[in-house]
Amino acid sequence: MFREQLQSGVAHVGLALREPEEFAARWDAKQVQYPWWVWGSLMATAILGTMTYGMTMGLSGDVNDVIKKGLACTLGAGLAWGIPLPALYILNSQSGSKLRASSTLLAALVTTSWGGLAMLASIPINWFFTVAIPSPGFILLVNLTVFAGVGVAMTDVFHRVMRRLEPQRDVTPLWWLVIVGTIGSELFYFFGLFQFA
Fold first, then answer.
1. What's the pLDDT at 79?
2. pLDDT tens, position by position, 34-49
3. Is the whole-model pTM more than 0.85?
4. Number of domains making up the chain
5. CA 20 to 30 Å from 17, out of 49, 97, 163, 197?
């Protein structure tokens, strides 16, 4: 039973990453009901990506730094996405959105899952430059560039998903991503994620 759920979850995550708009639109149109393990698999993808990338941010330190940065990156990113999530639904509804709360949550979850995959793909970049040029200032620049690139990619995914879910609306709530980025930056600073030895 667990094996089947795991395979189903991985297959659905693959679909969500290949076709995020279609994945969310099928849910919103009630063509499909994703079971809890699909939602959990999307969340696990985001956690895996942020944790493993965060661990590479600690390569210039010791083992404790690797573990600490892996946890800090995941916790900071999770809180940055979770804290403003109710505001996304409430303010979006106030501005005329007819999306269900579950569809709004799924759009955010698909976006974070996609971001987790982008973080995984960025590990070789961070790893190479951290080892090749172990200057704290340069490592900071590399990581800020990776986070900016992943942020732009996530903005694009979120915009496409929301436009597909509500094509009649002219405005995509990109303000929400600014709030996520601001909270995330503050949390990453608070957790010392961008302090390199």
1. 95
2. 888 889 989 999 999 9
3. yes
4. 1
5. 97
Residue 197 lies inside a defined structural domain of this protein? no
pLDDT tens digits, one per residue of 97-135: 888 999 999 999 999 999 999 999 999 999 999 999 989
User: By C-alpha distance, which of 79, 76, 85 is closest to 147?
Assistant: 76
Q: Which domain holds residue 21?
A: 2-190
Residue 173 phi/psi, 5° resolution? -70, 65
The CA–CA distances, whole Å, from 36 to 9, 48, 101, 177 equal 9, 18, 16, 26
Which are the contacts of 116, defined by CB distance < 8 A and separation ≥ 6?
Answer: 45, 46, 47, 48, 49, 50
Query: How many other C-beta atoms are found inside a 10 Å radius of the C-beta of residue 57?
Result: 28
Is the residue at 195 inside a domain? no
Token reading at 133:
């040029």
Largest CA distance in the chain: 52
